[in-house]
Amino acid sequence: MNIPSKYDANQVESKWYDYWMKHNYFHSKPDNREPYTIVIPPPNVTGVLHMGHMLNNTIQDVLIRRARLQGKNACWVPGTDHASIATEAKVVAKLKSEGIDKNDLSREEFLKHAWDWTHEYGGVILEQLKKLGCSCDWERTKFTMDPEMSESVIKVFVDLYNKGLIYRGYRMVNWDPEAKTTLSDEEVIYEERQGLLYYLSYPIEGSNETVTIATTRPETILGDTAICINPNDERYAHLRGKRAIVPLCNRVIPIIEDEYVDVEFGTGCLKVTPAHDENDKNLGEKHNLEVIDIFNADATLNSYGLQYEGKDRFVTRKEIAKELEEKGFLVKTENHINKVGTSERTKAVIEPRLSDQWFLKMEDLVKPAIKAVLEDEEVKLFPKKFENTYRHWMENIRDWNISRQLLWGQQIPAFYYGDGKEDFVVAETIEDALVLAQEKTGNAELKTSDLTQDSDALDTWFSSWLWPMSVFDGIRNPENEEIKYYYPTNDLVTGPDILFFWVARMIIAGYEYMGKRPFENVYLTGLVRDKQRRKMSKSLGNSPDALKLIEEFGADGVRVGLLLSSAAGNDLLFDEALCQQGKGFGNKIWNAFRLIKGWDVDETIEQPDSSKIALEWFEAKFQQTLLEIEDHFSKYRLSDALMATYKLIWDDFCSWLLEMIKPAYGEAIDPKTLQGVITIFEDNLRVLHPFMPFLTEEIWQFIADRTPEDALIVAKWPAQKSFDQALILEFETAQEVISGIRTIRKDKNIAFKDAIAFSVINNEEVKPTFDSVIQKLGNLEGVEYTNEAIDGAITFRVKSNEYFIPMSGAIDVEEEIKKLMEELNYTEGFLKSVQKKLSNERFVNNAPEQVVAGERKKEADALAKIDTLKASLSSLK
Asked: Which residues, in sequence order, are CB contacts of 783 under 8 Å at separation 6+?
């Protein structure tokens, strides 16, 4: 078989991925084996592969490939999320570029465009994951808007509504004016921003008095319906029962009293705008205040905005502040740091808004999920530190706002039959709804055409929280074979940023609908950052093109590069040099393979002792490392597992074992050693395969003719065996001895082709186990044990053992004397310059103490070196 001189990742990777797909290695069906299941965190259907995906999916593939090698029935379910806000925004932008306004389309027309867009662009990321080597069961690919997935979501909504857990409420919600939809509290990111505090003067009706109020949002005065003072604040006692006039709009509003007002903030007086602040809304309800909403859905001002109608809120803020100043209402401004809520998806500043929304009661639902993680440890988080974050979120949970003012998504299954707020029924289909509506109204004449379905869609997370169950049809058919076999799944790999959005909610749903955890372990990866610790993003331009990295370094190289710098739960400081290191590692293994396959075999040669003991040592070292690798995997320290594998192959196998067993130049190898090293190489490939699947499969298939059943992807993980720890320790000593010999050869210019004599005083009582290896790698005439030092020999120590290489015949004495004399003359000259400096009292008295100490150390080192050089010269003369 012709083995290429260079490893071509681009050619190899496509070849073996096609081979794996052709032979259906990724597909899983229930059988009598132990299942090992991972469900992919479904990337947005709008997404393309970025560094976070690369890290997350590499880790999942490592786990799934290892499970497959361990003989488990490995099932990795891929899929995508319909991502309501992000996808609808992209579709709207595409329509706009074509001169089409979303508002001019019916729901059905818009959804047709959304599905066309999804079919054209959706799933691109899944194809890109194949380039990375991801061994997902592609036959199981799911999309959260697939009919059976949507049916599961609707079924759950109806069930929770019937249990009294879903309700419709008129609440203050987080409004995203860019996406024009409400968001849950968890989708709002709070940022500290520099703003201004505006001090505004409000006239008191029927007098020349004014009252000053501080606000960060002067534009909202147009929605003011009261001024509130603290009843205990004597500064404003004279205002009780009076009314104020809102500047610019001249609305007369009451002055009310409530202890809610913080007398320390601003002026101790509060303007109340019930339509635009949660706390103001509560005050408004308590004091029966008018509610005036001044904003349109896109956060421009409506007809209450006077001449600012149609203008953006931030434009209005500047212009209204200017008008207030010109008309004498603006007293002063101060710099003020404010926490501003922004949309997790669009980054728009959130607007508090009153509206009718659907909510899910969470207080009781979370209890089993809290117990599972924090008490029973049925679900374990790695790293454990995230338990504190989980506890904080779950113990402070609020009802989940699950409705979105979007078209793309599962439409809420509420059907209205009248004009009243309570004139609705909830059902899985309009036919079921009709029956309920007829029963509720007592009107048998009602028809489906009399029913109108709620126009809102469900929050995307309301579908993905069912993911581990819905991908196996566990909601619609809870007793089916697949859900009973694959659920609960084993490991979940995701980022800590969606610990609450997704992970916690899946745990909640799992206990509610299956009575079981959805997974056993949650491995939370770090964020991918650049070398300057900045989060990678398109806006910063610091995120490399994932596919170009694969093209340049190969998928195996990129996988190694990512994992080498990815300790569990810690952020990954990504550097392309790590991918180069991964590629270099692959080349090292390829060249080691070519070396082995290049050896001629002579069936008549007996196995040398050096090769026999070398193979025994490596088998012990392999088993020791295998134990270490297993421990790292059990703790989800994949970076450490890879590093242990890396050192085993690079250092122990390539740098030591191959050197110990390789035949002399031009000579053949014995068959027993060759077979032994190939068996060892195959074991190395097995443990490396999860990390570098393509390279390992290529070499595996070159080693021998394999049937599809013998492919590496479905081979067996090496069995753990007992090993000789003493043998490993003995070789560590032998390594030091060999390194000592090689150092002397280099320093004394002793050609390696020249065999040299070698003796040892064995104070440590080291066994002669590796003497044959030391003799071979040091090119020694033999290893002689002695009780006395050898005069005229070069010596070195390993622990208390002393080793001797006689100078006679080993080196060119005249050349060595010349070299030592040159070094002695240089050192004596250096000593004089140091001593001259130290004899200068001015220097010694005025120089910093550490500088003088440094010079004294140089003097001592030079004196010691001169003594050593003179002793060496004396032994040669």
From this structure: 758, 759, 760, 768, 771, 774, 775
Alpha-carbon gap, residue 256 to 272, rounded angstroms? 10
In a 3-state reduction of DSSP, which class is residue 784? strand
Decide if 117 contacts 162 (C-beta within 8 A). Answer: no
For residue 595, report the phi and psi dihedrals to the nearest 5 degrees.
-60, -50
Q: Say how far apart CA 579 and CA 575 lie, in whole Å.
A: 8
* Selection from 703, 592, 600 nearest residue 656 by Cα: 592
Q: What number of residues does the chain have?
A: 877
Q: Which residue has the tokens 């001629």?
A: 600
CA–CA gap between residue 430 and residue 154 (Å, rounded): 12
**Distance between CA atoms of residues 429 and 436, nearest Å:** 11
Angle of CA points 49, 51, 52, to nearest 5°: 95
DSSP letter (8 states) at residue 537: -
727-811 CATH, one of 3.30.2320, 3.40.50, 2.60.120, 2.20.28: 3.30.2320
Tell me the one-letter amino acid at 119.
H
In the block, tokens 């299954």 appear at: 413
Cβ-based neighbour number of residue 484 at 10 Å: 13
Cα–Cα distance for residue pair 216/214, rounded to 1 Å: 7
pLDDT tens column, 686-732: 999 999 999 999 999 999 999 999 999 999 999 999 999 999 999 99
Q: Where do the domains of the chain lie?
A: 145-164+365-406+458-525, 181-351, 414-453, 579-726, 727-811, 814-876
pLDDT, tens digit, 9 for 90 and up, residues 446-487: 999 999 999 999 999 999 999 999 999 999 999 999 999 999
